[in-house]
Design goal:
By secondary structure, this protein is of the alpha/beta class. Helices cover 35% and strands 17% of the residues.
Length: 189
């Protein structure tokens, strides 16, 4: 995440690990712990932390709690975005969001493809529920790191827009962390 800016409140975030192994205590939550560190290093505040198994209804309940009860600015999930039969995080997320934000997962996949060809198999989604942005990240620490780096620069702007904050930038000014000219999806290439 980029600078919060003068007078801006820190981003109130939630981190949700989706993993049968972690939820059963058979594996360490390396991806969730890394994601918490990344959020905090970027100036966010992790106020909500959950670990759930790969069960759509449990994921859905946790996302609803984070968005509707805690009214967080941002919820990032790690895990359950692949093609395995129990990877259901995208479906659970789609069942709770009201509007999709497809550019975030597109940017994550694009950034990861150069190093990890299997990134094209990610089914991660992002969307908005109320004023909460929900973003699915992969389950591996490397996937979390790469994906976070791809989107972190735009998250403060997204949150500010959802909060209804005005005067974010002048017309025609590029947002901090904007993709370089000629990058896919910018209309410059």
């Amino acid at each position: 995440m980029a600078e919060q800016g003068a007078g801006r409140r820190p981003i109130r975030a939630g981190v949700v690990t989706v993993s049968d192994g972690v939820s059963a205590g058979r594996r360490e939550d390396r991806s969730g712990e890394l994601l918490c560190r990344l959020v905090e290093q970027a100036g966010g505040r992790v106020e909500f932390r959950r670990v759930v198994p790969d069960e759509a209804e449990q994921i859905r309940r946790v996302l609803l709690e984070a968005a509707d009860v805690h009214r967080l600015d941002l919820v990032v999930t790690t895990g359950g975005t692949g093609l395995a039969p129990r990877d259901v995080t995208p479906e659970a997320t789609l069942s709770v969001v009201e509007r999709l934000v497809p550019g975030l997962p597109e940017a994550m996949r694009w950034a990861a493809l150069a190093r990890t060809p299997t990134a094209m198999l990610s089914r991660a989604v992002a969307g908005v529920r109320g004023r909460t942005l929900i973003v699915n990240l992969p389950g591996s620490p490397r996937g979390v790191q790469e994906s976070w780096q791809a989107i972190a620069g735009q998250l403060p702007h997204a949150v500010a827009l959802l909060r209804g904050e005005q005067g974010l930038h002048e017309p025609g000014e590029k947002s901090p962390g904007a993709p370089p000219e000629g990058a896919p999806g910018t209309g410059d290439g």
